[in-house]
Amino acid sequence: MRATHSIIFTVFIAIVISPANVLGQTDSLLAQWAEFLEEDSEALERIQEWQERPIYLNNADRNDLLLIPFLTTQQVDSILAFRDREERFRSKRQLSAIIGRDLYALIKELVTAAKPRYRHRGYFIHKNHLQIEALQTVRENNYRGDFVYDYNKFYYKIPGGLDMGFITQKDIGEKSYLDYWNGILTYQSDTYQVILGNYYIKWGQGLMYYSPFGSQKSAMVTIPFRQSYNGGRATLSSSENSNLFGGYVQFSPHISITLALFYSNNERDVRFADDDETIIGVNYTGYHRTISELLKRNQLKEQIVGCGLTQTIPYAQFSILYAQYVYQPAIRNDSEVITPQEHQRQYFKFSGHQLKTASISYNADHHNIALSGEAAFSDLGSPAFTQNLFVNGDVLKAGIKYWRVSKNFQSPYGRMFDDRSAFPQAEEGMYGALYVEPAEPLEIKLYKIMKSDLWRSYFNPLPRQSNEWLMQTDYRFHNGLLTARLRRKHKQDYITDESGRTLRTPFAQYLTRLQIEYNISRQWRWRSRWAFTLVDDSDEKGAYYFQDLRYRFQDMLYIDLRWTAFQTTSYISRLYEYESDLLGSFANYPLYGKGYKWYIRIRWQPLSRVQTWLKYRYFNIIDRQPDIPVFDVQSVLKRELRFQIKFYL
To answer: Which of 3, 88, 526, 546 has the fewest CB atoms within 10 Å distance of its CB?
Structure first.
């Protein structure tokens, strides 16, 4: 322990006294994206790549600009019209007058008006994880493979509108280094878009298909009202059992009309009934480590055929979408293959061989007032719909979103608000957001969300309800940012009382956060955060503190240090801490019990075309409160080493 502290202190002193003349930089924007996107590695990787190699505004085409999250087609056309009129962007700050200050603040690090120093057409990434404590875990659980995580990604942009790429991934405990793979080959022009391989579809409000930049609540409170394109996007995501693999074609026979056709043929992991033979659903974990997991791999064949039409008129856009799904063998959730009790629990789960879905959606925007909505239908259930209203002013922005998804609505790739689980159903909710900028250095953000279940059964005697609000204030000062946040979550959960009865019990949890970050000099940046939680009508409470330090030597070397201490009463009062890892990797760790952790991350660029990352993480829980009434004292040690190298081509 003393040796560890000595190492950290030595590195700290070296950073402080280093005479290097470097530029200060903050990654607060990336931290916001990480908290917003949670575990979507592909979307996070794109954001971080755009930060390192921003899109050049003065030669980007329409398709390049449409890749930027939350830019609508109308905003992209306005950007191109400005560039044609003025001949070029002299500063990227000119975007603020076109798309608004708050949206510009979100994407400003993803674009540049300065000519890039290096022009690269592609890259190759190799990544490995090694969890030291997982060595014994792999042996004890009889995993079929080793304890190494392996990831490879190749991407290349060919002149003339062609892109190609592939990825491979092996999780810890898996045997094959090609356990998961996918690839893409795309062509884009002003009129056509063709995707072969892996892709996702974003359409309407997400009731049928959603984008990685979907409707997620966060401190960026107005994001759920930002509407972008309808269509398909090639993706090299490592998210298993969720992407589409096949072909997507989009073309515009007229300037105001866009047609889309798509087909996919997917193999999905499954969940079996108790007989270990009958398929009752899809398993989304993507793990193939044990014999049982290997037997469930790729047992379900899923074919999707669909088409869409978008009509654009002044200030508005209307779309229709149709998709048909065929499963082989059929998914069964009936009393013949599962117990009556389980059938009662899963009464509204999808069951069948075929499913047909359709939706109608619209977006309208005029004089800073935006309306949008979608209604979706499935042949095996009742419809779902959502409606948004957003007012986009210079000083004040406000929006309200309402949705209702019926109890038997069926949509395999639809997503409700703030929910990434498949087949959304049986929920009604409302989200309200307010953003105020009373003065240029001060921002006030507020959201409130209310949700409730729409059905009850013997096992769910009362519809679950949740009520949550957040208020955050950001104050920017010279070389720094001060953030204060208060959040209240009201939920219902199952609690076991002293007599052993399980009751649905409401409870409220308060979470507070105070954070300050400051570029102390041209050499290094400092960030501190204090977080505290309290559960109403109980003794549950918790807190954590972390200290960040970043050192930057020109563009060659970055060193990030973080030390965290935490203590909570139990798992109920746990706190989550977002932690950046390597390029495109972010983690959301639950902190509970009493302990500490630290990590050091180094990014070194020895050559203009080579970047390397190395991270060592040490996590120690001294007192751990398990999810049982009796307090158990034990030590839990987790050590992890991560390495990544990236070659620009």
So the answer is: 3
Tokens of 212: 């990685």
Distance from C-alpha of 516 to C-alpha of 347, rounded to nearest angstrom: 49
What are the CA-CA distances from residue 513 to residues 6, 117, 268, 449, 549 (Å)?
30, 39, 41, 19, 19
Q: At which residue do the structure tokens 């307090």 appear?
A: 631
Confidence band for 422, pLDDT divided at 50, 70 and 90: confident
Pairing of strands 541-553, 557-568: antiparallel
Candidate from 171-180, 306-315, 347-356, 492-501 with smallest mean pLDDT: 492-501
Higher pLDDT, residue 430 or 87: 430
Q: What is the distance of C-alpha 357 from the center of its chain?
A: 25
Round to whole Å and give the CA distance between 402 and 551: 45
Higher-pLDDT residue of 622, 205:
205
> For residue 210, with 0-12 CB atoms within 10 Å meaning exposed, 13-18 middle and 19 or more buried, which class applies?
buried
Residue 326 pLDDT grade (very low, low, confident, very high; cuts 50, 70, 90)? very high
Nearest-5° Cα angle at 565, 559 to 568: 145
With b for 16 or more beta-carbon neighbours within 10 A and e for fewer, the 585-594 pattern comes to: bbeebebbbb
Q: Quote the CA–CA distance of 648 and 588 in Å, as a whole number.
A: 29
Helix (H) or strand (E) holding 129: strand 122-131
Other Cβ atoms less than 10 A from the Cβ of 229: the count is 19
Q: Are 465 and 453 in contact (CB under 8 A)?
A: yes
pLDDT reading at 55 higher than 80: yes
User: What local confidence, expressed as pLDDT, does residue 615 receive?
Assistant: 92
Residue whose C-alpha is closest to residue 366's, from 328, 318, 324, 315: 315
Calculate ∠ Cα 41-200-195, nearest 5°. 115
Q: How far is CA 517 from CA 26, 294, 472, 475, 549, in A?
A: 8, 47, 16, 11, 10
Please state the separation of Cα 269 from the chain's center in Å. 22
In this prediction, residue 132 carries a pLDDT of 83
How much is the mean pLDDT over the chain? 82
User: Using CA atoms, how far apart are residues 156 and 165, in angstroms rounded to an integer?
Assistant: 6
Q: What is the pLDDT of residues 165-190, one digit of tens each?
A: 999 999 988 999 999 999 999 998 87
331: enclosing H helix or E strand:
strand 316-331
Residue 583's pLDDT is what? 66
Residue type, 11: V
Q: Which residues of 178-192 are buried (b: 16+ CB within 10 A; e: fewer)?
A: ebbebbbbbebeeee
Q: State CA 384 to chain mean position distance.
A: 24
CA–CA separation, 588 vs 600, rounded Å? 17
Residue 252's Cβ-side half-sphere holds a number of Cα atoms within 13 Å equal to: 15
Give CA–CA dist 429/414, Å, rounded: 16
Angle (CA) 100 415 422, round 5°: 150
Q: Where are the beta strands (DSSP E) in 415-523?
A: 427-439, 442-453, 465-477, 480-496, 502-519
In eight-state DSSP terms, residue 17 is H
329: preceding bond cis by omega (within 30 degrees): yes
| End-to-end alpha carbon distance in the chain | 43
Q: How far apart are CA 414 and CA 423, in angstroms?
A: 6
Contact of 29 with 54, CB cutoff 8 Å? no
82 token code pair: 């400005």
Q: Tokens in use for 250?
A: 């989009």
